[in-house]
Specification:
By secondary structure, the chain is an alpha/beta fold. It has a single domain, classed as Flavodoxin domain (Rossmann fold). Helix content is 37%, strand content 17%. Helix 1 crosses helix 7. The radius of gyration is 16 Å and the shape is globular.
Length: 202
């Protein structure tokens, strides 16, 4: 009997498309591993205007995440643009509403990795990755980074970190991903999926 493919959730928030491009590359790395399917999901924007609401279905791109996506996934790649060295309010708002998953332990023991993009090269990439780890650790997830066996970590002059995949998008958000950034994002997705397969086999 064939076992169903593992679902690897790629959950991200992106305003101008840079974080979404990283998510798509991570998904490419995930799907290069036999037996794994990437599931791309996003979160709605948060408005400072109390009357403003997001549409129930995004006008384009990935669907909004549902709590069942957390239960069904075998692993998680979490991404957000940097907001003053931290994750975006939209992503934080989503995680603040996951108490039921925390109580049930639906994410406990699952591997996770992180990714981000920033407008400036030293705009808080690593602090964003580190702060995004915190809710995942509370959920009992096992955090994975990028090892220095990935040679681009030593040569990149753009994004890339041992804490996760990163992209320097420029002040206007229009910088294209460098080859180093692309390779590291794909490698991170592949590493996450391979780890999920090993855990299932164990």
């Amino acid at each position: 009997m064939n076992r169903p493919n593992l679902i690897i959730l790629v959950l991200f928030y992106s305003r101008h498309g840079a974080t979404r491009k990283l998510a798509e590359l991570i998904a490419q790395g995930i799907e290069s591993v036999p037996g794994c399917d990437a599931r791309l999901r996003t979160v709605p924007a948060v408005s400072s205007v109390a009357e403003a609401t997001a549409p129930e279905v995004p006008p384009e791109g990935a669907p909004y995440v549902e709590l069942d996506d957390l239960k069904e996934c075998a692993a998680l790649a979490l991404g957000s643009p940097t907001r003053f060295g931290n994750m975006s309010s939209a992503m934080k708002y989503f995680w603040d509403g996951t108490a039921s998953e925390w109580l049930s332990g639906s994410l406990s023991g699952k591997p996770a990795c992180l990714f981000t993009s920033t407008g400036s090269l030293h705009g808080g990439q690593e602090s964003t990755l580190l702060t995004m780890m915190i809710p995942l650790l509370h959920h009992g997830m096992m955090i994975m980074g990028l090892p220095y066996t990935e040679p681009e970590l030593m040569t990149t002059s753009t994004g890339g970190s041992p804490y996760g995949a990163t992209h320097w998008s420029g002040l206007d958000g229009k910088k294209v991903l460098s080859e180093d950034e692309k390779r590291l994002a794909v490698a991170l997705g592949k590493r996450l999926a391979e780890t999920a397969v090993k855990l299932r086999s164990a």
